[in-house]
Amino acid sequence: MSAFNAIGEERDIDRNEFTPGIEPQPTWCPGCGDFGVLKALKQALPEVGLTPEEVLTVTGIGCSGKLNSYLDTYGFHTIHGRSLPVARAAKLANDGLEVIAAGGDGDGYGIGGNHFMHTARENHDMTYIVFNNEVFGLTKGQTSPTSPKGHKSKTTPHGNAKSPIRPLSLALTSGATYIARTAAVNPNQAKEIIKEAIEHDGFAHIDFLTQCPTWNKDARQYVPYIDVQESDDYDFDVTNRQEAQEMMFETENQLYEGTVLTGRYFVDERPSYQEQKKELGEMPEEPLAERYFDEDAEWERSYDLLERHK
Amino acid sequence: MSNHELIWRIAGGSGDGIDSTSQNFAKALMRSGLDVFTHRHYPSRIRGGHTYVEIRAAGHEVQSRGDGYNCLLALGDSFARNPQEEAYYGNEEIKPLSENLDDLREGGLIVYDSGLLSEEDVAELDLEERAAENDWHVFPIDLRSMAKEHGREVMRNTAGVGVTAALLEMDLEHIEDLMEDAMPEKILEPNLTILHEAYDMVTEEYAFEHDLRIPEGNHDEAQALLSGSNAIAYGAIDAGCRFIAGYPMTPWTDVFTIMSQNLPDMGGISEQVEDEIAAAALAVGASHAGVKAMSGSSGGGFALMSEPLGLAEMTETPIVLLESMRAGPSTGMPTKPEQGDLEFTLYTSQGDSARVVFAPGNIEEAYEQTRLAFHVAYEYQIPTIIMYDQKLSGENTNVPVSFLDREPAPSLGSVVTEADLEDMPHDETGKFHRFQHDVDNNVSPRSLPGQKGGRYLATGNEHTPSGHISEDADNRVAQMERRVEKLEDIRAELDEEHDSNQTYVGDELADFGIITWGSSQGAVFEAVERLNDDGHAVKAVSVSDMMPFPEAEMTEFLESVDQAMVVEMNATAQFRGLIQKELGRYGEKLTSLLKYNGNPFEPAEIVEGYELNSDGSDADPSAQVRIEPAAGD
Ligand SMILES: Cc1ncc(C[n+]2csc(CCOP(=O)(O)OP(=O)(O)O)c2C)c(N)n1
Ligand code: SF4
Ligand SMILES: [Mg+2]
User: In terms of CA atoms, which chain A residue is nearest residue B223?
Assistant: First the structure.
């Protein structure tokens, strides 16, 4: 008997189940790309058979971090840069949950960059959506780790001397096993990619281009975009690390030259962290959280460890 | 109390097996019926560098390392660097002998390995002269050759144990048993031979002119030798903690290691992660999902936990954190004890803090208060911190095994079940009111992700009952008051439903009080006993409740004395400051005795501090301690 009956529940799921009935309505600026992520998620979740109470969305701080205020799931809006460690521990504690982490480019590639690298390396079974608007939105438009070289903002009045981070390449070298880029202006592709990421067993990273019309006026709205899988100009194998690497490099370069490339870049079947930990005997087969509700559970005690101290 | 005690010091280089040799020797003494207490002194270095372990053993209770010591086994430092004239580290080879002479008591024994320590170096120490002055009995013995002859050079520790056992007329039975338990056949045989060889040689060839012998004692029941880190880890295990996340840092690493070695076999999970920010955030995430979780670190790593700690406070996520202090600031002295992180631990993280902090004073308290920490954290949905230090972490003492014969307490505290949720308040869209305003004990029961009917948003922003971000003034005041007022409810529960976490000793009617906290307890209590034996009326309290502060108990104590000396290991009298802040008075009664040279207090230093204080003398103390006069002086 489970103490968490929302998990794995089989029932019809309404298309609007993830939409809050009344307040709060999103407070994002008109035209903000963040709406696109929300919409794609609301569509994707029921389509993969998930119900609101078996999903945990864990967000960072930023405009993007408000995502779970407007999406009906269990939510944890954490602190700036720390969504991943909170999310992956929740998954370890109860691996029946569908865990989705999300945050901004500053949140995920800047202040939380170390967690990004390590969560990818460990290949935790979860989805991570980075709202990449190439600026710090919530703090009013400062230069971010993905802002283009030369980008002017109040903190870089003469232009940004730094080259932008390469999010897809970073995910690949770190060890992520599903890597994609999509854009808010392409809701169908976004929805499909989110579905694939959720269904992927391992760390799925989506670099989600979200235009910020308020602070990034001169930036493109990420149109027109090209789907690298659909375009005849590109041909590579997403399961081939070398080819994926080259395609990512090209995609990252092109973005700053005005061509928006999107699509799936890398898919790998490496076992997830949870699977590996279980195999080594470092994690219980049954969700740990269930045990606290099991009245027949036998709890080991330190008294039985005393032989070595006598 | 009989004064008869052995304080055996084994000295050598880091990496020379001092730890395991002393651990077994302490167990042998314990098995022979003695109470034991160990103290470990070591540098922040893996190989070489002067290190020692002291084992104090007596037929009566021992609560501290004692004053000085009376039996030295100086093994030589096999990783010593080439001695050079004026070298910054000095001549390292001779240190196991030279560094340990000042603390050796009159009438003490010295055994040193003449196979490793050169005659020239020893000659420079004026050992003969000093021995004559202090009635020391010196035994230069070539332990190294003895070890080499029957086994390998590294077995010289065993030879040294054999020699000291012979000199103390100590039975070898327990030592042999322990060696048999610990050693594989191949090395057991030569070690046993060396042990006996050394023992017999000394017994036969030396005339004993010294008085020191092994004390006698006996225990009513089997004992277990536990360190403070064992006690904390075992308290956590018995409280049902099955998740730990951490990043190594001395001295916290000890608990992290013990937990990591045991949790997987207990169906739990241990995670070594990228940094301490992640470690604390993982504990929050695991607890949020319904597991009893902990993390911890030492000063610098704990500093990185500030923001996740605040997140736990704001989202009312129960977690237990350890703050295993070492001498600061910054990297400080990594292997040395200090109690300098009190203010930092009480207040770190932005906003008004709402956390519970316990500072156990000994090994039994470490176990009890860790269990209590989980109870309070999970019942009241609040982070609870156990503060301790390098001293308590590494010291070993014996406790009766029945002390740990307890029922586990795995309850998740104030969580709801799916059945409970059906009748609980929700908003129109089905969100559970996980943060209700008016609730018993200010605790609003929490649901867990995956439960039917429990959906809500946890957020570090201020929030409404169902978790929506809100800056509404009335809601803010209600939520803020509920969070901070929990501390009053916790205080009430601690006062009314539990034995006090404060420990009292001495003459109840005394006008002079000593106040201490955390691991300085043992030395203070021994000093008080000594003072009372010598006809001074003194009492002491050792405080563990740092937050919420035990206001009633401390007021009563301070009302009952004319003067109180606060003993703590830091330079700025942080606990004295806390008392004054919490009670708002008594500044004129409180003086301080402070020590911050990297070594814990010895009882004699506290006795002297008392004498100088009670005389009103402004003479300087002889030890490296400082007296801070009362406010207004
Ligand atoms: C530790 C910390 N540092 C700084 C901030 C202030 N801050 C809030 S959001 C943010 C950056 C937001 O940028 P991004 O992560 O890209 O999210 P966006 O708003 O663009 O979605 C910053 C610097 C904070 N909340 N916490
Ligand atoms: S500031 Fe930019 S990112 Fe933030 S809500 Fe407005 S448009 Fe969106
Ligand atoms: Mg951004």
Answer: A310
End-to-end CA distance of chain A: 41
The total domain count for chain B is 4
Is A83 inside any structural domain? yes
Q: Where are the alpha helices (DSSP H) in B206-292?
A: 228-238, 253-262, 276-288
| Domain interval for residue A188 | 15-309
Cβ partners under 8 Å of residue A239, min gap 6: A266, A267, A268
For each of chain A's 310 residues, which pLDDT tens digit applies?
899 999 999 999 999 999 987 767 899 999 999 999 999 999 999 999 999 999 999 999 999 999 999 999 999 999 999 999 999 999 999 999 999 999 999 999 999 999 999 999 999 999 999 999 999 999 999 999 999 999 999 999 999 999 999 999 999 999 999 999 999 999 999 999 999 999 999 999 999 999 999 998 766 689 889 999 999 999 999 999 999 999 999 999 999 998 999 999 999 999 999 999 999 999 999 999 999 999 999 999 999 999 999 9
Residue in B with minimal Cα distance to A291: B291
- Considering the domain architecture, whether residues B43 and B126 belong to the same structural domain is answered as yes
Cβ–ligand 2 contact at A132 (below 6 Å): no
Report if residue B220 sits inside a domain: no
Edge-to-edge order in the sheet of strand A225-227 = A225-227, A260-267, A178-183, A203-209, A126-132, A98-104, A55-59, A74-77, B457-459
Provide the CATH number for the domain around residue A182.
Answer: 3.40.50.970
Kindly indicate whether the ipTM for this predicted assembly is greater than 0.85, answering yes or no: yes
The minimum-distance atom of ligand 2 relative to the CA of A215 is 2
Of B284, B408, B429, the CB nearest to A22: B429
Neighbouring CB atoms inside 10 A of B228's CB total 29
Q: Is the pTM of this model over 0.95?
A: yes
**Nearest CA, atom 1, ligand 2:** A137
Which CATH number belongs to the domain containing residue B323 in this structure?
Answer: 3.40.50.970
CA of A41 from ligand 2 middle (Å) equals 18
Task: Give dist(CA B177, CA B173) in Å, integer.
Answer: 6
Are A21 and B428 in contact (CB < 8 Å)?
yes
Identify which ligand lies nearest to the alpha carbon of A61: 1
If one residue of A25, A27, A34, A216 were mutated to test the ligand 2 pocket, choosing by the most ligand atoms within 8 A of its CB, it would be: A34
Q: Do the chains contact at B428 and A4, CB–CB below 8 Å?
A: no
The residue segments making up the domain with residue B389 are 225-404
Tell whether ligand 2 has an atom less than 6 A from the beta carbon of residue A137: yes
Q: Are residues B462 and B603 in the same domain?
A: no
Q: Domain for residue A198, yes or no?
A: yes
- CB B293 to CB A86 under 8 A? no
Whose atoms come closest to the Cα of A138: which ligand? 1
Assess contact for B307 and B353: CB atoms under 8 A. Answer: no
